[in-house]
Amino acid sequence: MQFYDRDTPADAHRLEGQGWLLFIQFSPDGRRFVRSEGRRVIVADLRNGQAERVWETGLSIRGLTWHPVGVRLVTWSLGRLVQIWNADTAADTGLLSGHQSAVVGAAFGARGRWLVTQSWDDETVVGGVARHQPVLWLPLAGNRPQLSPDEQRLLF
Q1: pTM higher than 0.90, yes or no?
Q2: Per-domain residue ranges for the chain?
Q3: Could you count the other beta carbons within 10 Å of the beta carbon of residue 144?
Q4: Could you tell me which CATH number the domain at 2-155 has?
């Protein structure tokens, strides 16, 4: 994996991993990034690429995304569950269930109160982050779900 500074591209950092780099995303505050390698989640410092936290999820990761505050993140696998993690401690803080098929996408609302997940069986589930419970099931799914800034409307 390589990352570059826009102003000094010659100063690229190269990081060696233990497996296939599948997913990568900057933290909302821009100080860290998260990447997945198989079943592992690695949260690293953006300045030097050094891992701050590394943990195993138990299943091969098929996607991940940060909570807008930057403390939590979610991962999903080919299963029907979405795991919610504390990125600072690597603690598993809960599961969000409700799908009948493999989860293929997820997105938090801008305020972080809601998480939208989508699955192979064309189902969209909106869940409350605080209680880890689904509150709305929609019979359609699309690509890259998005909640409006006030978290009142859903696009996909």
Answers
A1: no
A2: 2-155
A3: 11
A4: 2.130.10.10
